[in-house]
Amino acid sequence: MLSARPWQLPVLVTLLAVASGCALSLGTPYVPLHQLPGALRDGDTTLAGIVVTELRLPRLVLALVAGACLGAAGLVLQEALRNALAIPEMLGVSSGAAFGVAAPLVLAVTIPAGVQPLLAIGGAVLGGGLTLLAAGAGRSPSAVLLTGAAVAAALQAALLVLMVMADQLDLQLIYRYLLGSLSARTWDDVIGLWPWLFVAAPALVLCAPVLAVLRLGDEDAEALGVRARRARFAALAIAIVLIAPVTAVCGPVAWVGFLAPHLARRLNPAADAVRWLPWSAAWGAVVVAVADVPARLALAPVETPVGAWTALLGVPAGVALLRSANRRRAAPRRATGPDSGCVPGGASGVGEAG
Known about the structure:
By secondary structure, the protein is mainly α.
């Protein structure tokens, strides 16, 4: 299932090892790499042990889990809608989840930490449901994508209204949250994600083969016995379960769901959704872990939101991958000529297939 170009796994493991070493070692206090095993073993008995095990390690684990969820969700959305721009930020899902968490804060409603994922899921369901309802319950992938962009814009406008209503302290908290941040996260935040992952993981395994069929187009999928509208609705539901709990804890970490699937496709272009899914999750984890290093250290002692760095890294890299995929698909067309009757099938998943 993880078959890919032979150098992809070593590159991914190397990036993950470097990011993990920097995340656990760098900062104040600095813990040299050779002292990390001792710090992990000592736990709360030394200052280095407390910093590593109670502050830096849960933040690293959360970055990996959040990135994996966002990467997998991005692939699910892009394959279900057959469009490379079908990402959580463009479908109202991330904006809805952020709205569900930010509204009680502005309205001074005390919400237990365990309830925040439910609020995020409620907001994500609101955003995703409005998108599907306005687009005709998933009648057309392009209609869902365009409607989702409008719903996302409306929810972002509602978030701006909340920010106007907030006092100065709440405004700072909301601003940092809306950009996506891993600051001051603990093991409780990590543990709170696992119940949702236990729900989403089996659903992803069942969903992946259906996504491969949806890429053929609605008519072909119906001919093969897949009800395209229901499958698209189920894919959005799975994406919500992946995105909303992460958004509740970290805020909307932008563009991970855009970049990770494109990396998975670019490095294994001949595969399908079943094989891309684990790679997309793995690249999502690496992207967030790598981006959190400059987020924590670039302007130390002030931390910057990790979402700003994922957008800074993700947008140009994703655009470059899109351009590369378009050039690869255009090359066979030029070689075969317009009158040859040969229509090359792109493996990148970019653009709408039907």
